[in-house]
Amino acid sequence: MQWAVIFKKEMVEYARNVKWIWVPMVFLLFGIMDQITTYYLPKILESVGGMPEGAELNIPIPDPPAALYMSISEFNMLGVMVIALISMGLIAGELKSGVYELVLSKPVKYSNYITAKWAGLSLLVLSSVFLGYLGGWYYVNILYGELAFSTFIVSFLIYTMYILFFITISVFVNTLVKNPGLVLFLSIALLIAITIITRIFGHILSWSPGHLSSYVNEYLHTGTMTGDMWATMATTLAIIVLLLFTAVTILKNKEL
Amino acid sequence: MWEELAALNWALIAPLLVIELILIVVALIDLSRIEKANGPKWAWVLIILFVTGIGPIIYFIFGRRQ
Amino acid sequence: MSLIEVKNLSKSFDGEDVVKGITFELTPGKCVALLGPNGAGKTTTLRMLAGFSKPTNGTITFDEQSLSSDIRNYIGYLPQFPVFHNWMSGKEFLIYVGQLSHLSKSEADSRADELLDRVGLTDAKKQRIGKYSGGMKQRLGIAQAMMNRPKLIMLDEPVSALDPIGRREVLNLMREIKKDATILFSTHILNDAEEISDELLLLHHGELVEQGSLDELGNLYDSGKIILAFQDNIPADMEEKLNKLSHITDIEFKKQSIEFISSDVIASRAEILQLAVQNDWPLTKFEIAKTTLEDLFMKVVNQ
């Protein structure tokens, strides 16, 4: 009941500050722009000219899985930045501005407060990522060749874990520091650190969430879920639960 | 060159333009509705309209924070 | 029976003691002023009671704590500078915090209307809070503190930042609330404390230097000051006559009056009135001066 009240308040807020419009639109843009520009790049270069006579344009046309993965690459770069920007004030902003004094002087369970905000943000971001990824899949089918809808859906579900993982990192950092700018910096730094560590020690840390993006790529090409993929998703889920639990404990014991 | 461009399939590119248009319109409406922007409003109008592609996004992220 | 019992409550930030072991009880139905100069530890004390700040030492016990361990079920809190979700309307915000306090949607809705009416915001209830004036926000802040029908309402400097009209409105409102709940409010303004409170907690440098009702404190610090005022000029032999009386010190002559301190007010009163009759003094006033809160405050703070 109390959880639903906070969740609903987050939804209304996202509607009033037009996040429900611009975030999906931005992810749609990220999701389709590479497919379009890559497809037209040779034509555009040709028409602009400047190529020496007889030189051959050799830009390989990606196959459908690679073409769809271009959406994921954009999400991993620009998308992550946008997610970090919209989540940096989720809790830290309320602590800094002082709204928390009115909200948390009510008998609000800290676990409700954090998980409802986490769920609201996740719904907004995942809907947006889905829309963008769907747009990307649509263009892949038109421009690069057919790719099964089921492959698209399963790859999205794998990627969902990665997005949730990053959102949870940001929510966790939100309870650590009060300064939204610092939250932004720390959550991105943490994600980069995990990616680098996974790249270096990947052979040992075969279940690290840092593998999720490359698993999306692998799945798009092979169409099979490996044991490592399942294990990584399970590990990620466990880390998400653990981070949320820790965030609740931190906020509960925090000197506000 | 123009013939080449005309050969582009505009039906494929139109969605990009539509998204951009939606973002610009929503940003302008939102800017007119909020009490105070992060900086002078007229500057945001310029950014939304003339920073190609990402003007409205810049506004949503940095312009309307309170 | 006390509503809340605070024992030996202390708080230090980075080794600096802000609140130094204060002990007090709050009686149900009273309006208690937490009075003290800026930096005395008033806000820190209130924030510990509201649960935002963990005491370094000491205990806070609510008499109904056996019912639920969450003290926030019984309190309403208004910080010194309340910040709202400015995108909500006043009524939306009240319903939101009401539901957070486990009221149903319809209960919260009717309670919100009732309180908006009580704090005089009915006309503005659909307006966005971002457009409210300072006084309106303060009144909405009081309304939100009352949504869950708390046993104890804590207000941190509720009137200090308001203009005279806003101040008057909020003080009247507090007088109303007194009927339903115990009020603990902090202030550094003597008049506000004097005007509305039944009891005082005098805080200075993190220590509770005095506590009690206004009358009790007044008696405790009675100065023994006596004032005589005369119709015309002071009779010439006054000084000589007064000097002969015991108990009297610190005689101060003014144009048409004399002030002095007596160590035994009752005895001095008899002697002086007798002298006045015998010598036919043109007295217009004989006063045993009450200690004002300001005297008390200065006295305590300067000790």
Automatic annotation (TrEMBL), chain A:
What is one term from the GO cellular component aspect held by the record? plasma membrane
Locate the coiled-coil region(s) and give their ranges: none
Q: Which residues cross the membrane?
A: 20-41, 75-95, 116-140, 152-177, 184-209, 229-251
The signal sequence is none
> What does the UniProt keyword field contain?
Membrane, Transmembrane, Transmembrane helix
Q: Which GO molecular function entries does the Swiss-Prot or TrEMBL record give?
A: ABC-type transporter activity
* This protein's record includes keyword Transmembrane: yes
Determine if Transmembrane is one of this entry's keywords. Answer: yes
What PANTHER family is this protein classified in?
A: ABC TRANSPORTER PERMEASE (PTHR43471)
Protein name as it appears in the record: ABC-2 type transport system permease protein
Q: Which organism is it from?
A: Salirhabdus euzebyi
**Taxonomy of the source species:** Bacteria, Bacillati, Bacillota, Bacilli, Bacillales
Automatic annotation (TrEMBL), chain B:
* Keyword set, alphabetical order: Cell membrane, Membrane, Transmembrane, Transmembrane helix
Q: Which cellular compartments is it found in? A: Cell membrane
The highest taxon in the source lineage is: Bacteria
Instruction: Please provide an example of a Pfam family that matches this protein in its UniProt record.
Output: PLDc_N
Q: Is Cell membrane among this UniProt entry's keywords?
A: yes
- Please provide, in alphabetical order, the Gene Ontology terms of the cellular component aspect for this entry: plasma membrane
Note the topology in the membrane. Answer: Multi-pass membrane protein
Q: Where is the Cardiolipin synthase N-terminal domain?
A: 22-64
As given in the record, the signal peptide range reads: none
**InterPro entries named among the record's database cross-references:** CLS_N (IPR027379)
Where does the chain cross the membrane?
Answer: 7-29, 41-62
The protein's name in its UniProt record: Cardiolipin synthase N-terminal domain-containing protein
- Natural source organism: Salirhabdus euzebyi
Q: What is the lineage of its organism?
A: Bacteria, Bacillati, Bacillota, Bacilli, Bacillales
From TrEMBL, chain C:
- Whether Amino-acid biosynthesis counts among this entry's keywords is no
Cite the SMART domains for this sequence.
AAA (SM00382)
Q: Which UniProt keywords apply?
A: ATP-binding, Nucleotide-binding, Transport
Q: Where is the ABC transporter domain?
A: 4-230
Xref: InterPro entries: AAA+_ATPase, ABC_transporter-like_ATP-bd, ABC_transporter-like_CS, DrrA1/2-like_C, P-loop_NTPase
Q: Which GO terms describe its molecular function?
A: ATP binding; ATP hydrolysis activity
The family line of this record is: Belongs to the ABC transporter superfamily.
User: What name does the UniProt record give this protein?
Assistant: ABC-2 type transport system ATP-binding protein
Whose protein is this, by species? Salirhabdus euzebyi
Which classification does the entry list for the species? Bacteria, Bacillati, Bacillota, Bacilli, Bacillales
